[in-house]
Amino acid sequence: MRYFIGIWIFLIIAVVSLLGFRGSKSKDQPLYVFPDMDWQAKYLPQGENKFFADGRNDRPMVPGTAGRGYGNQLASVFSADYTDPVSENPPLYSGKDDEGEWMRGFPVEVNDEFMLLGQQKYDIFCAVCHGASGDGNGVVKQYEGATLIASLLQERLMAMPEGEIFNTITHGKLNMGAYGMKLRPDERWAVVAYVRALQLASSASVDDVPEQFKSELGL
């Protein structure tokens, strides 16, 4: 007990001594335990650099690299004749129209090849959760404790603009992860097109099948 009281008194004195210096001013050189947090070895923007021939820290863009962002402000930053894929078709990368609203429709041509691409990517990345038909009954739902998976066939999502669906695929939502790093912009739009096909098929009838395809389906 005697040792315990001694240790306890020592701890109290140590804590009070340390806290007593809080807020006090001093002209002495501070003690840097981790100096790299305050004095970082880095090149500052627009700084001078004798290593490069042009004497600048800022380096020009490496040919073939991808620029960050959607490029909406490129016209005010670069010369008038500067173009890149993002600035030439901003909705393809942002999912928004010229007014900043979610785009309805598609910024690319929708054809058979595009739909097949969408089906392929949907089967790889989406069907495991949302199901092959988009009803939300994928393989993941079979496991106990699986989170609620949205059906893509509900009216709310059928009425949602294509650009907003593209944005959800890009950045994710709630328990759904982001697929912007796994799918190119055109592949994400292809998935959106295939989702629209699944939604149409969920409420379609035999009368909606074009005559030239009815024989192939045995109708």
Would you mind describing this structure in some detail?
By secondary structure, the protein is mainly α. The protein has a domain at 75-204: Cytochrome c-like domain (Cytochrome Bc1 Complex, Chain D, domain 2). 39% of the residues lie in helices and 0% in strands. The protein contains ten helices and no strands. It has helices spanning 2-19, 74-77, 85-88, 90-94, 112-125, 127-130, 155-158, 162-171, 185-202, 211-214. Helix 5 (112-125) crosses helix 9 (185-202) and helix 8 (162-171) packs across helix 9.
Name some characteristics of this structure.
219 residues, mainly alpha, Cytochrome Bc1 Complex, Chain D, domain 2, 10 helices
The helix/strand order is HHHHHHHHHH
User: What kind of sheet is the major sheet?
Assistant: none
Structural class category: mainly alpha
Radius of gyration over C-alpha positions, nearest whole angstrom: 29 Å
Distance between the termini: 93 Å
Approximately what portion of the residues adopt beta-strand conformation? under 5%
Summarize the structure.
With 219 residues, this protein is mostly helical.
Topology:
Elements: H1 2-19, H2 74-77, H3 85-88, H4 90-94, H5 112-125, H6 127-130, H7 155-158, H8 162-171, H9 185-202, H10 211-214
Helix pairs in contact: 5-9, 8-9
